[in-house]
């Protein structure tokens, strides 16, 4: 199958963002599709954000559209796949060419209030037509399904596909991982890996780390918290560690390349991620892929990506999160048992192999789609 691919947010394709979930997912998806014999052509690298920011002129946009049209005619794709289109970043190239198979992957409905008013209606109009034209529309979160139904997308065209990551095939032993990283061999370890966001960042991941630190005093005294990541929020985190007197209980290891994260997952007993936002966090899937149970908040995405009570524990409040983390961190044999269940659950529902097969079916028009 020849697949024309376009992502209206071209930074999702940049390898230097490999620690983020979108590049990890896309590069794994491309590799798997190509391994299965499909051809993929990234039909354009134009970022729609540059258009409404005024950095790409209308003449330049028209020239790019004509270039895309020529490229499509030469490539002759069997299907067109668009990643994360929205009213802020719509597919400006695919829908009007009426491809034989048109799939929107991880579609969204939001529109940034930073878009100049003269662009808002036009971009929303493009996205609306794209949604109408699509053979299938997939989303990552249940609330987006509800919103798209309100935008006129029939339920028979909607699919709920959370983001996926590759199955970790060579997991180091816990002892080898701890020796490599310089961690104590017999200490319970809870890991959290994330960016330390600045005060203005809407993802508020530093605030999530501060919430995690707030429950550390209630954990068994021998539990070590390992924080992997870096960013503008690091000074705030370090100040909180000092304020709570946790220097001997919290270890900040700095930034970690995505390829090296498997050593940290292997070294820990449990993965902790108390972010309250309803999003399918990539690191929760990666931890389960490496055979580690997770503790996170009870959201729609949490319930969709964690088998509660089997592959991990979900909490409705920060106190409940602390109780769950204390229970697991204090029982390493239970962590190991749940870790095995986590890996089996991940392999069945959330591996890149599973997701690629589902996407293939949508692109090919398989009866199972």
Explain this structure.
The strands form two sheets. Strands 2-1-3-4-5-6 form a six-stranded parallel beta sheet, sandwiched between helices. A six-stranded parallel beta sheet has the order 9-8-7-10-11-12, with helices on both faces. 42% of the residues are buried. It has two domains: 2-165 and 352-364, Glycogen Phosphorylase B (Rossmann fold, 3-Layer(aba) Sandwich); 174-349, Rossmann fold. Strand 8 (224-228), helix 8 and strand 9 (250-254) form a beta-alpha-beta unit. The model has no long low-confidence stretch (mean pLDDT 93). It has 14 helices and twelve strands. It is an alpha/beta fold and 369 residues long. Helix 1 (21-35) packs across helix 14 (352-364), helix 7 packs parallel to helix 8 and helix 10 crosses helix 13 (332-349).
Q: How does the overall form come out from the CA principal axes?
A: globular
Number of strands: 12
CATH topology of the largest domain: Rossmann fold
Number of helices: 14
Gist?
With 369 residues, the chain is α/β, with parallel strands linked by helices. It has two domains: 2-165 and 352-364, Rossmann fold; 174-349, 3-Layer(aba) Sandwich (Rossmann fold), CATH 3.40.50.2000. It is built from 14 helices and twelve strands.
Topology:
Blueprint: E1 2-6, H1 21-35, E2 39-44, H2 48-52, H3 58-75, E3 79-83, E4 102-105, H4 117-133, E5 136-139, H5 142-150, E6 158-160, H6 174-181, E7 189-193, H7 205-215, E8 224-228, H8 234-243, E9 250-254, H9 261-267, E10 270-273, H10 282-289, E11 294-297, H11 300-305, E12 312-315, H12 318-329, H13 332-349, H14 352-364
Parallel strand pairs: 1-2, 1-3, 3-4, 4-5, 5-6, 7-8, 7-10, 8-9, 10-11, 11-12
Helix pairs in contact: 1-14, 6-9, 7-8, 10-13
């Amino acid at each position: 199958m020849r697949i024309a691919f376009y992502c209206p947010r071209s930074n999702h394709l940049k390898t230097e963002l490999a620690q983020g979930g979108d590049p990890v997912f896309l590069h794994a998806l491309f590799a798997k599709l190509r391994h299965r014999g499909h051809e993929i052509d990234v039909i354009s690298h134009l970022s729609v954000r540059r258009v409404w920011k005024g950095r790409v002129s209308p003449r330049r946009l028209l020239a790019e559209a004509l270039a895309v049209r020529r490229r499509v005619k030469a490539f002759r794709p069997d299907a067109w796949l668009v990643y994360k289109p929205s009213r802020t970043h719509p597919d400006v190239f695919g829908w009007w060419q009426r491809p034989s198979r048109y799939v929107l992957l991880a579609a969204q409905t939001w529109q940034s209030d930073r878009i100049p008013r003269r662009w808002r209606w036009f971009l929303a109009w493009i996205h609306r037509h794209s949604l109408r034209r699509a053979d299938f529309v997939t989303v990552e979160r249940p609330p987006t399904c509800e919103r798209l139904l309100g935008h006129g997308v029939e339920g028979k065209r909607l699919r709920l596909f959370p983001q996926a990551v590759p199955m970790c095939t060579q997991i180091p032993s816990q002892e080898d991982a701890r020796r490599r990283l310089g961690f104590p061999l017999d200490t319970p370890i809870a890991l959290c890996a994330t960016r330390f966001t600045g005060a203005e960042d809407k993802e508020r991941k530093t605030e999530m780390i501060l919430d995690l630190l707030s429950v550390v005093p209630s954990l068994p005294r021998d539990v070590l918290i390992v924080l992997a990541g870096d960013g503008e929020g690091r000074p705030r985190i370090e100040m909180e560690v000092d304020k709570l007197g946790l220097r001997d209980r919290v270890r900040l290891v700095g930034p970690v390349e995505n390829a090296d994260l498997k050593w940290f997952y292997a070294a820990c007993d449990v993965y902790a991620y108390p972010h309250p936002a309803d999003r399918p966090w990539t690191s929760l899937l990666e931890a389960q892929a490496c055979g580690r149970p997770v503790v996170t908040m009870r959201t729609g995405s949490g319930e969709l990506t964690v088998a509660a009570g089997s592959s991990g524990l979900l909490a409705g409040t920060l106190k409940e999160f602390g109780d769950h983390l204390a229970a697991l961190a204090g029982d390493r044999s239970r962590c190991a048992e749940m870790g095995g269940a986590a890996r089996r659950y991940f392999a069945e529902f959330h591996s890149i192999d599973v997701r690629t097969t589902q996407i293939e079916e949508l692109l090919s028009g398989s009866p199972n789609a």
